Amino acid sequence: MARAVTTKRKAINTALAWVIGLLIFFPILWTILTSFKTEATAIADPPVWFFFDWTLDNYRVVQERSDYGRFLWNSVIIAGGSTFLGLIIAIPAAWSMAFVPSLRTKDILLWMLSTKMLPAVGVLYPVYLIFIQLGLLDTRLGLTIVLMFINLPIMVWMLYTYFKEIPAEILEAARMDGAGLRAEILYVLTPMAIPGIASTVLLNVILAWNEAFWTLNLSAARAAPLTAFIASYSSPEGLFYAKLSAASTMAIAPILILGWFSQKQLVRGLTFGAVK
What we know:
Blueprint: H1 7-34, H2 39-42, H3 57-65, H4 68-99, H5 105-114, H6 124-134, H7 140-164, H8 168-176, H9 181-192, H10 194-210, H11 213-218, H12 226-231, E1 234-235, E2 238-239, H13 241-270, H14 272-275
Antiparallel strand pairs: 1-2
Helix pairs in contact: 1-13, 3-13, 4-7, 4-10, 7-10, 8-9, 10-13
């Protein structure tokens, strides 16, 4: 039987959830507020919160100085392309590990996860040389491939977890009806795992969108995404906090909108196994 929860306990839990949520959101809120300040107000001590002369000059300066649309388009292609390529590899890999496991399946999964523990700077030099030899330096294709491989272990792990929740008897029934491997994955497994796939896609897009180390080191001008767009407002002459905040707000706005419209699907995906 479900445990009874008092009204007082519900109120405490709700208030606690709001406090934690506001603490997590506070850096984003502060960045947005700073983007509407002048440079003098942005560095004022003590900090000025809401009562200041709001201005849009920072956004105007950022638009005049940088081609925001080009950086945005690069981010969309890199994040979307790496996610699409990752799914093409991760779905069959997770299927084989979930439904046709071997004695080494768990070892392979742990090995894939262990690659995330390797500092990125440890492989920067060989990757940089490979990119020079293949002509992939400062190209959207090169960044797409790198980010796909970086996030592939997480994609395989997430999909493997969701696929394990699907009864194998359903796939066996599809095989008895004459479904081949391709039809089994496309028309039986994939529709049942849509919540998990949606969660995986959203997480991978966010990770690729926010990736700074590889995008800053492997791009210069042509393929530079929004992370490079933000970094351009940190110069040896100093930090321009208001303009940097305006650039950051413009960079995070698309991903915040995506997260807002995808939150219901994400929650469904994360609770898929629990509600079965």
